Amino acid sequence: MSESMDLLEIRNLSLSFGSVRALSDVSLHVKAGEITAIVGDNGAGKSTIVRCVAGVHRPDEGDIVFDGQVVNFVRPDQARVAGIETVHQNLALVEDLTVWQNLFLNREISHGVGPVRFLQKKEMRKRARDMVAKLAVNVPSVTSTVRRLSGGQRQAVAICRAAGFSSKLVIMDEPTAALGVQETRRVEELIERLRSEGHAVLLISHNFDQVMRLSDQVWVMRAGKCVAGRRARDTTAQEIVGLITGAIAA
Amino acid sequence: MTATESVGERVRVTLTRPTFWVEWASVVGLVLLVVLFTALDSTFLSAGNIRGMLLASAILTILVVGQAFVILTAGIDLSVASVMTFAAVMFGLAMTHGYGILLSCLVAFCAGAAVGLLNGVLVAKGRITDFIVTLGALSAASGTALILSDGKPITVISAPLFELSAGSVGVVPYTFMIALLIAVLAHVVLFKTKFGTHVLATGGSVEAAQATGIRTTRIKIAVYAISGSLAGIAAILLVARVGSAEPAANMTFLLNSVAAVVLGGVSLFGGKGSIKGPIFGALLLTALSNGLTLLGVSQFYQPLAVGVVVVGAAFLTRFDK
Amino acid sequence: MTGAERRRSRWVGGMALACGLSLMLSACGGDSAAPSAGDGEAGGDAKIGVVIKGLDNPFFQHMEDGIEAAAEDSGVEYTIQAAASITDTSGQADKLSNLANQDYDCYVVNPISGTNLVQGIAQIAAKDKTIVNIDNPVEAEAAKAADATIATYIGTDNLAAGKMVADQLATLAPEGGDVATVGGVAGDVTSAQRIDGFKEGLSQDFTVVQEVAADWNRQEAQTQAETILRANPELAAFFVANDDMAMGVARAVAAADRKGETLVVSVDGIDGVASGDIDAAVAQYPFVVGKMGMQACEAAAAGHELPAKVDTPIELITPENAKEAQEAFPEPPSDYENPFADLLEG
């Protein structure tokens, strides 16, 4: 059953920035078709671990196994090609480009010879509309610039970009941190829709309610280590908080 | 009725949108200047004067295209004019050494491209601020030009070059056609190709561009190389125009190239702008200088007028935030 | 190429701008001009310290040539220091102060501004040594403040040069007409003096209809001249403040098919006159300025009284004498008065 298969497996990952040990011997796994959350205090290493997976950082030690293969990403686009999409905390949208340009950034549909690539704008606009419609994302028009969108709409565009292009794993770093109640709810719906579309989601969040509500699996990090893993239905918010602070031993 | 109303409404909405004035400041400014100067002096719109203005704006136009690419990535190229000087001297030397016109043109182009490439590598890979790198290149290129030419103009006599500088179809000089061709190509590259989108993305947000895997280092190197190459082409037109390769500093070209790009609504923070805007900016600056001279306005007022126009345009872009 | 001030003043503009930009980096230019000590033989009996402007343009290169040529002639011992650039006022002042502390009998100075060398001049005056001022005059007020007496001033008269061009224009176009002037950087002193001299000397038959600044730049001069010709198609003449811009103006005149009808006259431009592009020019001779400065020091050392002010020659260049002038360069083609040489011989 594909439900129980590990899509991503992180084995004994360690990474230091100079004398600072950001990750030490971290192991965790993400199942296909599930929402997996990583929680922890500020500086616990949550963002660092996902940046390793997304190809931004290269671990000093350990392996990342994705879809049955040991991968070694040097640049973010290699992770993208492999099927790992990231919604960064800053969203990584270019404000002065349109929604469709952002959706297709660095995977533009083009034709031409060698390095001369002419854009196929019409095709990209059409597909962008499809992508937006599929996730029922509330965006005024794919031809408006991102600058004119609200925070929630921008988040939706970023998620939409991550969900498109047949990605297998979507990493989200604090997707609702900067949003209001209404917009948070919309984004949460979007995340659940991604799961029902068959994507695996790796979620970093501070919001325990959200984590408990959305996720199937929770990993707790503390001081660069992964201290515990729990099935969401088998645990409580109190236990998670205890694990984060160290009040409860793993 | 509803149709006309909606048209009227759309015009009103467009005109009251601040970004409209930012995008079209240079065109509106140019039209206003043309109206003003024509009212004051009927020779302003004479065929001869139009031709003269186009001729005078060709070199600036080419430099402005290069500058626009660099500024679109949130950089700045302070060395464009000096690189042109350097390339002009290289061109002059190649001609006097009997390389022939085509090979000499290639020498000028490559000289400009090489300096531009060096600028780009230092900015993108060396991680030195663009301002400092191109300021250094400004000095180094003028210095090299002075050394190579021994501080003296190199007379270049060539029939095809003279034809290039003097010939025209109607009121449109050959040199302006070349400038226009370059501008059109630049527009296509910027807005119709993958590379162009990546230039805009790099300028708009380096982090976002890198997150999607765009090699922003390469993009930066490329835009400086483009700027340098275009300065090399401008150098050929410059030599053709004055009949000699001069190691002159050409500071006015530098200032006007930046001014025209700003006039043309390109954001100095990068990521937003066009090619047509800066081109109209270049035409505007040329028309301004031409009109003031035509009217016999004192030399002391010209820099003041340019300053007012540039700051006025920068003021417009304030609304765009 | 005549010893044009071309690049001198062009660089005033260019370098001023470059300096403005690079102020935050460092002072403009470096102390690259190393002193070149002339190890003179026993011939001369004075030790001379020379401080001149930047060697970044031909005008001052010719001046330095003149200084070296004079020193070689007499075998006098000397040290020459140049400012790093045309805007290096404080650096030049430091150089003179350094020399003032050393043991020289006579100092030749060409200050960048009328006042920037005043400290060094005061030091020299306190030691009671001779001061010879060449090219750019030390302001009288500044000299007074330094309690210094300038033994002699040797320079080229830009006003007179402009005037002489005006006189020649009257001969070439006796019927008069409209004229336009093309100057260097707007506000530049040299350019303004030449144009003022020209306008002063202009006969009443002429009217100045347009004055433009072309930044000592050939391309700019050409563009401006083209525009002026369109506004004033019957223009009788252009007065151009240096040779390089004059070449650009000449091209504009040729392009407008006005060659021979619209005359081009300029300060400097021997080669342009020789090639037929410029109709008449007045040449200045920085080489002679430098040479006379050295000779003045030698004459003072020999105990002679120096004349207070000496104008170095300017020469009218016409198509008739252009060839001769080219051959004689950097000296003028005809004999000229040199009071210092007379003193040394007499």
SSE diagram, text form:
The complex is a heterotrimer of chains A (250), B (321) and C (346).
Chain A: E1 6-17, E2 20-31, E3 35-40, H1 46-53, E4 61-66, E5 69-71, H2 76-82, E6 84-87, H3 99-103, E7 110-113, E8 116-119, H4 121-134, H5 151-163, E9 169-173, H6 181-196, E10 200-204, H7 208-214, E11 217-222, E12 225-231, H8 237-245
Parallel strand pairs in A: 3-10, 3-11, 6-9, 9-10
Antiparallel strand pairs in A: 1-2, 1-4, 4-5, 7-8, 11-12
Chain B: H1 2-16, H2 18-40, H3 47-72, H4 80-96, H5 101-124, H6 130-149, E1 154-155, H7 159-166, E2 168-169, E3 172-173, H8 174-192, H9 194-204, H10 206-211, H11 216-242, E4 244-245, H12 251-263, H13 276-294, H14 301-318
Helix pairs in contact in B: 2-13, 3-8, 3-11, 3-12, 3-13, 4-5, 4-6, 4-11, 5-6, 5-11, 7-11, 8-9, 9-11, 12-13, 12-14
Chain C: H1 6-22, E1 36-38, E2 47-52, H2 58-74, E3 77-82, H3 89-101, E4 106-109, H4 118-126, E5 130-134, H5 140-145, E6 152-155, H6 158-172, E7 177-183, H7 189-201, E8 206-213, H8 218-231, E9 237-240, H9 243-255, E10 263-267, H10 270-275, E11 280-284, H11 286-301, E12 309-311, E13 314-317, H12 322-328, H13 339-345
Parallel strand pairs in C: 2-3, 2-4, 4-5, 5-6, 6-12, 7-8, 7-9, 9-10, 10-11
Antiparallel strand pairs in C: 1-3, 11-13
Helix pairs in contact in C: 2-11, 3-4, 6-7, 8-9, 11-13
Briefly, what is this?
The complex is a heterotrimer of chains A (250), B (321) and C (346). Chain A is α/β, with parallel strands linked by helices and 250 residues long.
Brief descriptors of the model:
heterotrimer; A: 250 residues; alpha/beta; Rossmann fold; six-stranded mixed β-sheet; four-stranded antiparallel β-sheet; 8 helices; 12 strands; B: 321 residues; mainly alpha; ABC transporter involved in vitamin B12 uptake, BtuC; two-stranded antiparallel sheet; two-stranded antiparallel ribbon; 14 helices; 77% helix; globular
Give a written overview of the molecule.
The complex is a heterotrimer of chains A (250), B (321) and C (346). By secondary structure, chain A is of the alpha/beta class. Chain A is globular and about 55 Å long. The model of chain A has no long low-confidence stretch (mean pLDDT 87). The two termini of chain A are 29 Å apart. Chain A has a domain of 170 residues: Rossmann fold (3-Layer(aba) Sandwich). A 6-stranded mixed beta sheet of chain A has the order 6-9-10-3-11-12, sandwiched between helices. In chain A, strands 2-1-4-5 form a 4-stranded antiparallel beta sheet, with helices on one face. With 321 residues, chain B is mostly helical. Helix content of chain B is 77%, strand content 2%. Chain B is built from 14 helices and 4 strands. In chain B, strands 1-4 form a two-stranded antiparallel sheet. A two-stranded antiparallel sheet of chain B has the order 2-3. In chain B, α3 crosses α13 and α5 runs antiparallel to α11. By secondary structure, chain C is of the alpha/beta class. Chain C folds into 2 domains: 156 residues, Rossmann fold, CATH 3.40.50.2300; 127 residues, Rossmann fold, CATH 3.40.50.2300. Chain C contains 13 helices and 13 strands. In chain C, strands 1-3-2-4-5-6-12 form a 7-stranded mixed beta sheet, sandwiched between helices.
